[in-house]
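Q: For a teaching handout, I want to show students what a protein-ligand complex looks like in token form. Below are the inputs, and the small molecule is adenosine-5'-triphosphate. Please produce the holo structure.
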Amino acid sequence: AHSQAIGAPKIPSVSWQDIGGLQEVKKEILDTVQLPLEHPELLTLGLRRSGLLLYGPPGTGKTLLAKAVATECSMTFLRSDGSSESLRYDRESLRGINSCVCGVFFSVKGPELINMYVGQSEENIREVFRKARTAAPCIVFFDELDSLAPNRGHSGDSGGVMDRVVSQLLAELDGLHSSGDVFVIGATNRPDLLDQSLLRPGRFDKLVYVGVNEDRESQLQVLKAILRKFEVDSSVCLSDVVERCPTQLTGADLYALCSDAMMSAIKRKITRITEGLESEAGSLTLTASDFSQALSDLQPSVSEQELQRY
Ligand code: ATP
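A: Here is the structure, written as tokens, with adenosine-5'-triphosphate included.
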């Protein structure tokens, strides 16, 4: 199951423009991650480097944000180095640990590192940090961090396996201080389940909430960001579309709306092709009726009750 979960290395190519709304979140992330990278002298002046923890309901854009940081920072690394030397890495040796590698960005899903063999999970964690130090400057992204670092003593495992995993993770995080050029970002839907020692200064000490889009303006911005990659008929008024949306939508909900509209456009095109009214060539354009169709199925994926958790 381990190797199956890993897959081929992927290169993130998410830019800030692909992420709609979340203005405050973006700003906070840039201040935390990019400022010290672009101005290392600030670190000597007393600015402390923090690990970033993105938390919030599923589908709100946490993974997307981490990928955008990686894209953005790879440019910073390139600039500060004056060469692409630091981006060199050994794909083969990284295989088996990372689901996503781009020289500067290691993306690790918490559950991927957990292994039933005694001591193997800790070894996997050591390995991630070893690779990261070799590839530095780089960013390590821990998705589903709660599965890797549940509250010690409460994880329900009798042999204390998870306790040792948490201890190993903490030791590695503390060990990063000497180098300074490995940056960690974590993401979780369940910050309440995290071992609290993970949040101490010098570890994941910068907490950033990534929430649902509650107002029309942010929904509109997310919709526009998603639709950058779609062709939309000029008669479609996106402000009208969001007016007809439920409130409390995640980015993933809005993405689902767009792909449903896309599905409707595809069906329409197929019908027209079979009727001989259209050729197969040509692009697919989303119309107002495609959006109406999709809106009728749109439901917020995060309930009011779930939102109370944060
Ligand atoms: P999970 O906690 O389930 O891992 P997440 O918060 O990491 O969720 P993402 O994987 O980043 O969520 O988002 C899921 C998808 O939703 C993205 O691939 C993207 O298509 C869309 N999406 C989410 N938020 C935004 C946004 N702010 N702008 C544009 N698209 C978004």
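A: Two things your students might notice: Confidence is low (pLDDT under 50) at residues 1-11, 78-103. Strands lie at 52-55, 100-101, 105-109, 138-143, 182-188, 206-209, 231-232, 285-286.
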